[in-house]
Design brief:
6-stranded antiparallel beta sheet, 33% helix, 6 strands, 162 residues, alpha+beta
Length: 162
């Protein structure tokens, strides 16, 4: 009986966190599922990472409009629920390669978190190559970045905070 209760509670916590990650994504990015997620928390530090499969409609818009597609993609799905959260708004979108600034430093920490949680190394290398090469798009907030990789058809949410 206790193992069922622990399993149920663990699942509910996991499902709640998955919804929170989805809510951090801009509504304009329509996705058709997630490929993988990772979440690591300690007393002093937490990290998060999610890879989401983008819809064909979203990819068509990105391929057609390039950077212009993202002009109105700076608010998270949940922004109406909590406009004051830093997770609910993003900076202006940019073309890759990712450039680290004072408010944009944690992409690497998030992918490291995902690797420690078992992210497929082949996928991790493809994501890193896209992040630090031309051809993709990214935005950020103080604790994370959101990277869209049209060639792979994915959006990657990656970050860490203390």
């Amino acid at each position: 009986m206790s193992s069922v209760l622990v399993g149920t509670v663990s699942y509910l916590l996991w499902a709640s966190r998955q919804k929170q990650f989805r809510d951090w994504l801009p509504a304009k990015l329509d996705f058709v599922g997630h490929i993988t997620t990772a979440d690591g928390n300690s007393i002093l530090f937490g990290c998060f990472f999610g890879v989401y499969k983008l819809s064909d409609k979203t990819l068509a818009g990105i391929n057609r409009d390039k950077l212009k597609f993202f002009e109105d993609a700076t608010k998270a799905r949940a922004h109406q629920q909590d406009d004051n959260s830093m997770y609910n708004s993003y900076e202006k979108w940019q073309k890759t390669p990712i450039e680290y600034t004072d408010s944009n430093t944690t992409f690497g920490a998030g992918i490291k978190c995902a690797r420690s949680a078992g992210l497929d190394e082949s996928l991790a290398k493809k994501i890193e190559l896209a992040a630090f090469s031309e051809g993709s798009f990214y935005t950020g907030h103080p604790e994370g970045q959101l990277l869209v990789i049209p060639d792979l058809g994915i959006a990657v949410l990656s970050g860490a905070g203390g």
